[in-house]
Amino acid sequence: MTGTGSRSSIVVLIMLLCGLLSSIVNAAPPTLQVNHDFKKLEQFQMGYFVDPSGNMPISQVQNQHFEASSNSITLGSNAKTTWAKIVLQNTGDSPITLYLHNPYAYYNHAIELNEVVNGQVTRKRLLDMDNKDTYKWMYQGTAVFDITLPRQQVKTLYLKNVSYIYQVFSVELYSQDLSKRVLINQYNDITLIVGMVLALIIYNFFLFLSSRLKEHLFYACYLVSGGFWIALSYGLFASFFDVFGSITLKWNIALGTMPICLLIFMINIFETRTKYPTEHKALLTTIAILATNSIYGLFDIISALEYASSLAFIVMSISLCVTISMFLRRHPLALLFLIGHGFFVTFSVLAVLFYQGRIGFNYINSHGVGIGILLESLVLSLIIANRIRTLEKLEATQAELQLLASTDPLTQLLNRRSFDLEASALLNQDKQIRFPLSLAILDIDFFKNINDTYGHSLGDQVIVRVADVLRAQCRLQDIVARYGGEEFVILMPNTTREKAHVLAERIRTTLAHTSVQVDQNQLVNFTLSVGISEVDAKTADLQAAINQADKALYKAKNSGRNQSQLHIS
């Protein structure tokens, strides 16, 4: 009997302790004491109650059990109608006025505030986001209610929040002066984030217009949809344009375009269509699912947004798997994309869990998507910069190869092929030449003897010296080329053969007084022979002019060299 009595006593004691513990945990919210020195209450305890019916009158609400909580809560999609209970007491000897802020008011469908004294409603205010007549309690997306407390009065506030999808709200209390300051500065962080995204949008649109590379356009579209969603979801549009309620709810369809643009960007930079068919099919399937949900959202936006959380996990999982696959395949852009997308996925997961009411209320969780988009955008901009550098290197390489293909490697003058192309282009500008056009062929005299006597190295120096003089003496519009081993050609636009003869003589005379040093004790002099012709204005036949200049060159050679000869028809 003694043992049984002892066990019964223990059971009773445990039940009493459990009841005591339960009453402590579920106790009514503490009374918040304020007086004329009050400035602000941004963190305090209150109570909340979820009304499953959505239309319970205040008389019944007062009798419900309120769960203790902080003043900022997130309850997911199963608590669309939630009441908050706050007990205030003016401990001073003079009346005071407080201002209750609900900074997430733009996110809700309706907010109702009841002021209760001694069980009686003394004042009731309803803020309906679809009724502009009630907007007098709305300031830049934040609901602001003034609350007057006479001296020594205890007043209970019952705040009803009706959400569209996810129940997220926060209440804060301020004095009049501090209330104004908070309202003025409340969206500075979001403005900064959107401003940075806007700068990236403008930059990439200009890059697309200048380069016509699709990745710039797809990236800019991703930034546009992401920036739009940040401004919409975090109250910037509500602050600037005073647009709330069901209208902005429909704009959330933009949430679907953001991952679609990102996936298209991935397809483009990773070139999945041509190189990675499996990953390409996965990305296209994901895009199709997102597009289907967006179209469905045109008819039932609330259901579409409720599905968005599940779709977000699918999109993030597939995009992350594709990125990891690219990394394992050693794609040069995969590491940067993995880092940037990793930021987005990490913070977006926190945001999804936050909106579903599974994790606590803090700045990072509540602004996770915006932070993720910004960080990903900054890292993806490095990918864009990397692509630009790669393309610039490729263009520089192509230009260098083109230069090598078009120039003589020894003299850096045009080679024979490039001379023919440029000369033909010049002659093809008109069916008939409208200006005199002359051509000169120059040949180094006894060049084989120079090579045989002093070696090819000195022969190369002689050729380079001739090229230097030609560059110095010829005009910018003249087309100068190394036409053969020791042979050069000049095509002179707007030049008669007489004027061409003057230029040829100046070049020949200059080189006749030029020498190349063999060693400290010996110099080598050399001369040129030149043949000159004029292109027929009627036929514009370049080859005929070359043949005529060649005949004049042979005449100069046969006449003793070191001279210029004109072709006479």
TrEMBL record:
<dbReference type="InterPro" id="IPR000160">
    <property type="entry name" value="GGDEF_dom"/>
</dbReference>
<dbReference type="InterPro" id="IPR011622">
    <property type="entry name" value="7TMR_DISM_rcpt_extracell_dom2"/>
</dbReference>
<keyword id="KW-0472">Membrane</keyword>
<keyword id="KW-1133">Transmembrane helix</keyword>
<dbReference type="GO" id="GO:0052621">
    <property type="term" value="F:diguanylate cyclase activity"/>
</dbReference>
<dbReference type="InterPro" id="IPR043128">
    <property type="entry name" value="Rev_trsase/Diguanyl_cyclase"/>
</dbReference>
<feature type="transmembrane region" description="Helical">
    <location>
        <begin position="249"/>
        <end position="270"/>
    </location>
</feature>
<feature type="transmembrane region" description="Helical">
    <location>
        <begin position="190"/>
        <end position="210"/>
    </location>
</feature>
<protein>
    <recommendedName>
        <fullName>diguanylate cyclase</fullName>
        <ecNumber>2.7.7.65</ecNumber>
    </recommendedName>
</protein>
<feature type="signal peptide">
    <location>
        <begin position="1"/>
        <end position="27"/>
    </location>
</feature>
<feature type="transmembrane region" description="Helical">
    <location>
        <begin position="217"/>
        <end position="237"/>
    </location>
</feature>
<keyword id="KW-0732">Signal</keyword>
<dbReference type="Pfam" id="PF07696">
    <property type="entry name" value="7TMR-DISMED2"/>
</dbReference>
<feature type="transmembrane region" description="Helical">
    <location>
        <begin position="282"/>
        <end position="302"/>
    </location>
</feature>
<feature type="transmembrane region" description="Helical">
    <location>
        <begin position="308"/>
        <end position="328"/>
    </location>
</feature>
<feature type="transmembrane region" description="Helical">
    <location>
        <begin position="335"/>
        <end position="355"/>
    </location>
</feature>
<dbReference type="Pfam" id="PF07695">
    <property type="entry name" value="7TMR-DISM_7TM"/>
</dbReference>
<feature type="domain" description="GGDEF">
    <location>
        <begin position="435"/>
        <end position="569"/>
    </location>
</feature>
<keyword id="KW-0548">Nucleotidyltransferase</keyword>
<keyword id="KW-0808">Transferase</keyword>
<keyword id="KW-0812">Transmembrane</keyword>
<dbReference type="InterPro" id="IPR011623">
    <property type="entry name" value="7TMR_DISM_rcpt_extracell_dom1"/>
</dbReference>
<dbReference type="InterPro" id="IPR050469">
    <property type="entry name" value="Diguanylate_Cyclase"/>
</dbReference>
<dbReference type="Pfam" id="PF00990">
    <property type="entry name" value="GGDEF"/>
</dbReference>
<dbReference type="InterPro" id="IPR029787">
    <property type="entry name" value="Nucleotide_cyclase"/>
</dbReference>
